């Protein structure tokens, strides 16, 4: 097992800090969508209750779920020691959003898609896998900043 250097520890700390920022942005955005859903007018009653419409940032959230799934696999593959943390972040994202069953299934499906996309191809950590990690960390930071800026309170 590889011994962790100070650089490895600092990288892990920056990644965890980044993930906390993502979760904060999603929590704020989830609170905003819950308030909007409460204020939505009731147009009629159907025999089967339907879920409220997804928030306007849903496509970005689905992309973030996919990235979390990819990072869950890739970080573990590359022995970063925090692979499971990305799954925990996804669980926290779902808890913060409190989606209905259909929306939750979409989020989980995208997470699983991100995981399986790399699981089906990579068996060892390669330079390409490390580059994918770097790109996904950057993209997830951009998504978190976008959601926080546009939809946070």
Describe this structure in words.
Helix content is 74%, strand content 0%. The protein contains 5 helices and no strands. The protein has helices at 6-39, 58-77, 83-97, 101-119, 127-151. Helix 1 packs parallel to helix 5 and helix 2 packs antiparallel against helix 3 (83-97). The longest helix is centred in the N-terminal third of the chain and has 34 residues, at 6-39. The protein is globular and about 45 Å long.
Largest beta-sheet characterization? none
Mean pLDDT: 80
Whole-angstrom Rg: 17 Å
Beta-strand content estimate: under 5%
Principal-axis shape equals globular
- What's the helical proportion of residues? over 70%
Q: Ends: how far apart?
A: 44 Å
Overall strand count:
0
Strand and helix order = HHHHH
Helix/strand-derived category reads mainly alpha
Q: Helix tally?
A: 5
Spans of at least 5 consecutive residues with low confidence: 1-10
Please give a quick description of this structure:
With 153 residues, this protein is an all-alpha fold.
């Amino acid at each position: 097992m590889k011994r962790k250097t100070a650089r490895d520890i600092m990288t892990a700390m920056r990644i965890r800090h980044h993930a906390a920022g993502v979760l904060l942005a999603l929590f704020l955005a989830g609170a905003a969508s819950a308030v909007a859903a409460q204020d939505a007018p009731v147009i009629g009653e159907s025999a089967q209750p339907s879920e409220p419409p997804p928030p306007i940032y849903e496509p970005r959230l689905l992309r973030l779920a996919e990235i979390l799934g990819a990072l869950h696999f890739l970080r573990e593959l590359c022995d970063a020691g925090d692979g499971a943390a990305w799954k925990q972040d996804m669980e926290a994202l779902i808890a913060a959003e409190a989606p209905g069953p259909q929306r939750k299934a979409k989020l989980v499906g995208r997470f699983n898609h991100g995981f399986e996309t790399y699981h089906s191809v990579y068996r060892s950590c390669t330079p390409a896998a490390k580059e994918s990690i770097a790109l996904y960390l950057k993209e997830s930071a951009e998504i978190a900043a976008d959601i926080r800026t546009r939809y946070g309170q």
